[in-house]
Amino acid sequence: MSFFHYQPLNKCMILVLRRYKHSIFRLQTCFLRLSVKPRSQNPFKRTLYRSLSTIATASHSVEIFESLKRQVSLKTSTSFPLVHSRDYTMEIREHPANTNIVKKLFTPGPLGVSVTTKEAMMQDIGSREKEFTDTVKSIRQLLLDLANVSPDEFTTVILQGSGTYMLEAVLQSSTPRSSGQVLVLVNGAYGLRIQMICERVGLPYESIPFPEGQKVDPKQVELILKNKKQQFSTVVVVHCETSTGVINPVCEVGLIVRRYCPGAAYVVDGMSSFGAIPLDFQNSQVDYLISSANKCLEGVPGFSFCIARLEHFRKCKGNARSLSLDLYDQFEEMERNKQFRFTPPTHALLAFHQALMELVKEGGIEARGRRSGYLCRKSYTKRLISNWKHWSFVS
Question: What is the DSSP pairing of strand 100-103 with strand 90-93?
Answer without folding.
Answer: antiparallel
